[in-house]
Design a protein that fits this description.
Dipeptide-binding Protein, domain 3; 6-stranded mixed beta sheet; 537 residues; 25% helix; alpha+beta; single chain; globular; 5-stranded antiparallel beta sheet
Length: 537
């Protein structure tokens, strides 16, 4: 039997030594270390759209994960291979039965308002994540109790094993927030989410809506002499041409998630002041997908959903829309999440004639104008590929008599429309598989995770009792081979049911100005704390 976790004691000491540098395109790791880091200066991070909140206690909106960890830390951090390393916790112990996780917390840590960080904060935060975080119900489904053993020791007691749990405690995924500022409120609505008070290397200064966020150096940071920067500015630049210009002219230091036109990547790779970094996405493992609102009568018929799958050509999206970046997938799991990906899933071949036959059989004949169905298509406004993909999907569906009106909107409106108002037909979007399917995939298909108002949950309102059973069993199975078979059956059912369909595994890249170093020090990449970020030129 191959266990997914080893119940053993792990002890680490806080270090301030050299950080691992970034892997540049075509080169090996590390590229640059920070042993000679100098203090001072301002660096600028670019993100493609303004996040709805800047603390991820109750939200995982695409760009919020890039800003939250700058102020708000997690119990653990992770190396590129997802090996845990200390953050707010310095030691951890897993019981032999996998039902108790005991964390020793870092002494002498202060919140940005000067209050001491204690186990009460950690216990409160984990309980809050379980309740209000979009993935919290999955991640902490088996959490029976959180015990404060003393001011610097917290214990998680589980009703059943959670083989993925030790990898779920990063700053962006399970942020630790100050109990004294959140207690007695709904954590999802607490105004501190938009003016964070954390333990991290940077203090929140201001958020100018529609423009930027400013963070300033935390002089009392526990990991002295870090951080090195005096100031970090996060700019929101929705227009892709403006992003490209800002990066090329040196206005921007770090730009994650492939921020420039894909057909421009080769040219950007030749510019001497820039490097293209492919590390720093091991924690996310994103995919693109088409998903349906299963509350709509026409999408309750599987023949209609299969017709869409026959008409929307994954290869066109990869080769034309994405300029060959990424790999096509047939199911819900990224090829980058190699230990859980099933390579031989059935697929829906591009076959417009079969799509027409299925639509006829579903009782959707063409009207005198040649239209079978008039619907609205919402794409996620988080990158050029989704907008381009939406236009391709509109054209592909028109060929079989489906008139899809493409609707553009900002990220907050898109999220509210889909997850709160339920005012959508189908979408083309991206979703992170994260580090384990129980955390990153289950949330989208588990019937118990249909929660209107909670973003990035089961927005399709998909319900299949066998899928629920497979997901719930996999969440507590510690034998790798048995767990793989559970996820494999789950993937095969989804291909048959088509509540959505995967399109491509993402191949995200970060463009970095060579004047900075220490930007990609672990699996989170630009979604890390930037405590090591420093100016070298």
């Amino acid at each position: 039997m191959t266990l997914l976790f080893q119940p053993t004691r792990r002890r680490f000491l806080a270090t301030t030594g050299a950080a691992v540098g970034a892997l540049t395109l075509g080169a090996g790791r590390p590229a640059r270390a920070v042993t000679a880091a100098q203090h001072g200066g301002t660096a600028t991070l670019l993100i493609s759209s303004q996040p709805p909140v800047i603390t991820t206690i109750a939200h995982t909106a695409f760009n919020s994960v890039y800003v939250s960890p700058k102020t708000t830390e997690g119990l653990l951090d992770y190396d590129f291979d997802l090996t845990p390393r200390p953050a707010l916790a310095t030691e951890w112990d897993i019981s032999s039965d996998g039902l108790e996780y005991t964390f020793t917390l870092r002494p002498g840590v202060k919140w940005h308002d000067g209050a001491p960080f204690t186990a009460e904060d950690a216990a409160f935060s984990i309980a809050a994540v379980k309740e209000v975080h979009p993935r919290g119900r999955n991640t902490f489904a088996n959490l029976a109790d959180v015990q404060v053993l003393d001011p610097l020791t917290v214990r998680l007691r589980l009703a059943k094993p959670a083989p993925y749990l030790l990898t779920a405690l990063a700053a962006s995924e399970t942020p630790i927030v100050p109990k004294h500022l959140y207690e007695g409120s709904n954590p999802a609505e607490n105004p501190v989410n938009n003016a964070p008070v954390g333990t991290g290397p940077f203090k929140f200064k201001e958020w100018v809506r529609g423009s930027h966020i400013v963070y300033e150096r935390n002089p009392d940071y526990w990991n002295a002499p870090k951080p090195y920067l005096d100031r970090l500015v996060v700019r929101f630049v929705p227009d892709i041409s403006a992003r490209s210009i800002a990066i090329e002219t040196g206005e921007i230091d770090i730009a994650p998630s492939t921020p420039v036109p894909l057909n421009e990547l080769e040219r950007f790779a030749t510019l001497p002041h820039l490097e293209i970094v492919k590390d720093g996405y091991q924690y996310a493992n994103g995919i693109s997908r088409v998903d349906f609102n299963l509350e709509k009568p026409y999408f309750q018929d599987v023949r209609v959903r299969r017709a869409f799958a026959h008409v929307i050509d994954r290869n066109v999206i990869r080769d034309v829309v994405q300029y060959g970046v990424g790999e096509t997938i047939n199911g819900p799991i990224s090829k980058n999440l190699t230990r859980w990906y099933v390579p031989d899933l059935p697929t829906y071949a591009n076959d417009p004639a079969e799509a027409e036959r299925l639509l006829d059989a579903a009782g959707l004949p063409r009207d005198p104008d040649g239209v079978r169905l008039r619907i609205t298509h919402d794409y996620v406004p988080s990158g050029e590929s989704y907008k381009r993909g939406a236009e391709y999907i509109r054209q592909a569906l028109a060929a079989v008599g489906v008139e899809a009106t493409v609707r553009s909107q900002d990220f907050a409106t898109y999220t509210k429309r889909k997850y709160t108002d339920r005012d959508f037909d189908f979408t083309f979007n991206g979703m992170s598989n994260l580090f384990d399917p129980t955390v990153g995939v289950q949330r989208l298909y588990w019937s118990k995770n249909f929660k209107p108002g909670v973003p990035f949950s089961n927005g399709m309102r998909y319900s299949n009792s066998r899928v629920d059973e497979l997901l719930e069993t996999a969440a507590v199975t510690v034998d790798y081979d048995a767990r793989y078979e559970l996820f494999a059956e789950f993937q095969r059912i989804l291909v048959e049911d088509v509540p959505d369909f995967g399109v491509t595994s993402s191949s995200d890249l970060t463009i970095v100005n060579r004047r900075v170093a220490g930007h990609t020090t672990g699996a989170a990449g630009a979604a890390g704390s930037f405590a090591d970020l420093n100016i070298v030129a």
